[in-house]
Specification:
The complex is a heterodimer of chains A (329) and B (329). With 329 residues, chain A is an alpha/beta fold. Chain A is built from ten helices and twelve strands. An eight-stranded mixed β-sheet of chain B has the order 6-7-8-3-9-10-12-11, sandwiched between helices. In chain B, a hairpin with a 2-residue loop joins β1 and β2. Classes of the chains: A alpha/beta (329), B alpha/beta (329).
């Protein structure tokens, strides 16, 4: 793997996204929800980065900042070498041709009054990527085939499709503008078990077919993230606590939260389950409005020492591209 | 251990505008005392409806049209759904925990009132006595300062805490059997683990049986001794978890295990999706409902009706003509 700078498609530096909490008639700001609080990572072209964590950890917010659906409070986002953090709205259209998003809920993310073909074809029109109706039709048909849908179903409306088929329409729409980065935000969690694998395989096949397609794959299910990702970032209360390759994460998790998260996911094999270590965390995820001092995990951590409440542990490389944010490791 | 519940040839149907939905079609199973059993399947397979039938909580347009539900020697279907016999069993001897802890608690009654209501009604306790017992139950399920929280309303509890309240309510009358219908699906991974461990500890303490209804195979592998797998309103495979997860025999079970990502899988493992979609339960053909999706199907499957369950191993039953083990080799 070459290490040239061009290989890095996306670099996020110390990203912060605070949402104000307001009160009263004048909407006086009383606090911030620190949804993302100092997140940094790089993604190489063609790679899949998994973002995993529990609800409220900021994984979706990171995805939405990257695609500039939010204006970040602080930090930098470099996409293909270009600083996109503060680009004005008028320049974003050009940017959003190169990035797209697949949403969690295939029921609410498709316009019920638009036919499937016009949903898939809309990005082609918005970005003026076709010159004639004929070309438009051909492109839409090709997109349908790419995601395993029959192009003759283009005239149907979203409610006529099953959940899995709808998610295929969502994937086709995301592919329409030929993006180099797709943010997949929980793309399978609303689907039935037997349908999930179809979408996972589709995403994997697309990446093999379209060289250089990069994914940020956001999910709460660690086994799914481990399956699809080249690297995994584990998030807790707005920060990345550990980032490494899937196998290393499974075999040698270092952060106590990662260990707990892994042990919480059961394996479908009763013999293995009999011998697996179980770490049951105490309490629940604290509010991101007023997170605990120092390492925000220390209040639930089984390895915490007094220092943990004083310093925010930086993410540091412990070798082999394995980074962890914990002073006890 | 003695037999606690025996369901024989249960049939529950819903009359809809589109036709008759056979949600549960000729389902037979049993639960022994102090046993943990998993009921697994995808949405619409009848797993919840079968459990609601046992509780006699099927409302119009649904109707139990046949079968027997023998609980502690008495056939529950002989009683009126809202008659005195069922009311003395439901909640007291058979209790249920529902999926949505947000909606299954009454928002306008305090937690304490909801708990004491059951104790007063079923166990004939006086107010003070019931209140004391309610506080004990809350602290038993891990709610801090239980005594003072009795006067709180459900919205003052987090999702995980509400589900703990549900567990306390479920166990309040020391039931013989606790049915947990997707008890942790709406919750975060580490909270899920906390609650499942709690439930396991509680049913051991109260010497109850536990039925876990879920689509998560891992949860069943971790907690249950036996498993029933449902598809399109019928049980397609049943047996001990240790046998079924290692040697699944029904094509649907085999398919399910091949299509879910697992934490301990080898890198580069390809998921094998089950092709097609779960069937529409209206106007089902007499042949096997899994036939259109089955990679093992033979001529007999197309000609003859869905077979009865047959024994293929140590207490392992499948509803299938094909000897899948030979076909795999």
């Amino acid at each position: 793997m070459s290490s040239s700078r061009d290989d890095i498609i996306l670099e996020v530096k110390d990203l912060k996204m605070y949402f104000p909490v307001t009160r009263g008639l004048l909407r006086r700001k009383v606090a911030d929800v620190k949804a993302v609080d100092g997140v940094s990572f790089k993604i190489r072209r063609g790679e899949t980065l998994g973002l995993v964590g529990e609800s409220g950890c900021g994984k979706t917010t990171v995805g939405r900042c990257v695609i500039r659906l939010y204006q970040p409070t602080g930090g930098k986002i470099l996409f293909e070498g270009e600083d996109i953090t503060t680009q004005p709205e008028r320049k974003l259209r050009h940017l959003r041709r190169k990035m797209s998003l697949i949403f969690q809920d295939p029921y609410s993310s498709l316009d019920p009054r638009q036919s499937a073909a016009s949903i898939v074809g809309e990005p082609l029109k918005v970005h003026q990527m076709v010159t004639s109706q004929k070309e438009y039709n051909e492109r839409v048909e090709k997109l349908f085939r790419t995601v395993g849908l029959d192009p003759s179903m283009g005239d149907r409306y979203p409610h006529e499709f099953s959940g899995g088929q709808r998610q295929r329409i969502g994937v086709a729409r995301a592919l329409a503008c030929e993006p180099s980065l797709i943010v997949c935000d929980e793309p399978i969690s609303a689907l039935d078990v037997s349908i999930q694998a179809q979408i996972i395989n589709l995403l994997e096949e697309l990446q093999e077919g379209l060289k250089g397609l990069t994914y940020i794959f956001i999910a709460h299910d660690l086994s799914v993230v481990k399956h699809i990702s080249d690297r995994i970032a584990v998030m807790y209360l707005g920060r990345i606590v550990e980032i490494t390759r899937p196998r290393e994460l499974y075999e040698n998790p270092l952060h106590p939260y990662t260990k707990a998260l892994l042990s919480a996911v059961p394996v479908p094999d009763p013999y293995i389950e009999e011998t697996r270590e179980r770490i049951i965390l105490k309490g629940e995820v604290p509010s991101p409005i007023n997170p605990p001092s120092g390492c925000s995990f220390h209040v639930r951590c089984f390895m915490a020492i007094p220092e943990c409440s004083k310093v925010v542990p930086p993410l540091r490389d412990v070798g082999n591209g394995h980074e962890v944010a914990c002073i006890r490791v | 251990m003695g037999r606690l519940l025996e369901v024989k040839n249960l049939k529950t149907q819903f009359k809809t505008e589109g036709g008759l939905v056979k949600a549960v079609d000729d389902v037979s199973y049993y639960i022994d005392e102090q046993e943990i059993v998993g009921v697994v399947g995808e949405s619409g397979c009848g797993k919840s409806v079968s459990q609601l039938s046992v509780m006699r909580l099927i409302n119009s347009p649904g109707k139990i049209v046949g079968g027997q539900i023998i609980f502690e020697g008495q056939d529950l279907l002989k009683y009126e759904a809202n008659g005195p016999e069922m009311r003395s069993i439901r909640g007291a001897k058979i209790a249920m925990i529902f999926q949505e802890p947000m909606t299954s608690l009454n928002p306008v009654l305090t937690i304490g009132r909801q708990l004491t209501e059951m104790l007063e009604l079923h166990l004939g306790m006086r107010r003070n006595e019931a209140r004391k017992r309610a506080a004990e139950l809350l602290s038993l399920v891990g709610i801090p300062s239980a005594e003072s929280r009795l006067d709180d309303y459900p919205h003052q509890f987090s999702g995980g805490m509400r589900q703990r309240v549900m567990i306390a309510m479920g166990l309040s009358c020391n039931p013989k059997m606790l049915i947990a219908d997707e008890p942790t699906t709406a919750l975060d991974v580490t909270t899920q683990a906390q609650l499942l461990e709690l439930m396991k500890a509680m049913v051991e303490r109260f010497r109850s049986s536990l039925v876990i209804v879920t689509h998560n195979l891992g949860v069943v592998a971790r907690y249950a001794q036996r498993i029933y797998i449902m598809y399109a309103g019928r049980i397609v495979e049943s047996g001990y978890c240790k046998d079924i997860f290692r040697r699944p025999r029904h094509p649907y079970t085999i398919g399910l295990l091949k299509c879910v990502p697992r934490l301990d899988e080898e890198e580069g493992r390809k998921l094998v999706p089950i092709k097609g979609l779960p069937p529409n339960l209206i106007n089902m053909p007499p042949t096997c409902a899994f036939l259109p999706r089955c990679p093992y199907a033979v001529e007999q499957c197309r000609k003859e009706p869905w077979p009865e369950l047959r024994l293929v191993g140590n207490q392992q039953y499948i509803r299938c003509y094909v000897n899948t083990e030979e076909r795999i080799q």
